[in-house]
Amino acid sequence: MTEGSILINNGYILTMDDRREIIKHGSVYIEDGKIVELNKTDNMVKRTADVVIDAHHKLVMPGLIDTHMHLAQALIRGCADDVSLVDWLKKYVWVLQGNFTEEDGRVSTELCMAEMIRTGTTSFLECMIHSRYGFNGIAEAVEKAGMRAALSKIIMDSTGYADSEDIMYDGMIESKDECLRETEDMYQKWHGNAEGRIQVWYGLRSLGAVSPDLFREVSRLAREKQTHMTMHLGEVVDDVRYVRENFGTNLTGFARDHNLLGPDMVFAHGIHFEDEELEVLAKTRSNIAHCPASNTKLASGFAKVPKMLKAGVPVSLGCDGGPSNNTYDMVREMRLAALIHKPVANDPLVVSAEQVIEMATLGGAAALGLSDKIGSIELGKLADIILVDLDDIGLTPASNPVSNIVYSGSGYAVDTTIVNGQVLMQGKKLLTLDEEEIKRKARFHSERLLERSGVDISPKWPIR
Asked: What proportions of the chain, in percent to the nearest 5, are helix, strand and coil?
């Protein structure tokens, strides 16, 4: 529940407003979940508050927003390291997820959210919830934890992946009617619930798993409901070949012909868009969730992020999942996003620390359709705020906290996480989740899942 009032004093405030103003020795006053005063500490109106936080030696900034992640994959962290993508899916990830129970889904959700809150993520876009994960239990866990979430129900009517036919594991298959019925039920029950923190979206599976008619039907339904869609697109080069051979067009041409372009769509990865397609993405305000760790680990390629930013494409950041990234730490994701494009472009000036912070805050807010509510610390906006400990040994000296948080930090330097005016973590202690109990349940459920699925993820080296 939203705290009555919170006063944050003496912080180094990264506002992310239109001027990108930074306030040294600044204060933020929060009431009923919203920011109602922002100023130099010495100039603040004298007030009392239910919660007073001393932000001396702390960076105060908007909460980080993860626009592509998988809640269910926290429980299978590290299950498929150093293997090719098709084997990654067919032999490990789909097999494990295809043996989930609803309780596994809830435990994985709690584990994932505990890590996100600990590392400064306040909002996230879960891209594909299978019915076997238990949508209700996941939404209930989000409500209890206090995070802000867009929860996307899997939509599919086929079993392919790009130009590979019938490769999906049986336990991951759902029918079109099941998908649409559950999405409708969950939309009616959860969309706008939990003090407005939960949205319900359509999570279209990749090319090859959704028919052209279903793509068009979902785009119509989403717009009728004024909700959003997300899907993996251009993650693999096979996507390009698939649309060329089957539809005689490129990725954005396919998206245009199936009514998938627009600010209500988040395309995950977007690695293999051609240069000439970037103008289309920019003009339609179609969002790209950039996932540098996953793209790198699976050798999927390098998204054209410098060119996207220059063209005006809306770009945000995503951690993806436990098998493809192995963490849900957005601070580490920011660092990688700022680093990997420099050698590709042979230019140390591309993708600056400032641009990466914009992706992780303002870009994420735009992707979720919440630019007027979150993504910056401004009067009237919802209080989704984190405090980073600049006294952390890895961030000292903090002569330039903007640079430090991107190039020197990890999410475990985050001291306090606030969502909707509720303190979810303070002094690095979770307040809405029981961290020790979550870890205990995660270990237990992981062991049972591995036994049930028959997947072996033990080290490759001999164990004595």
From this structure: 40, 25, 35
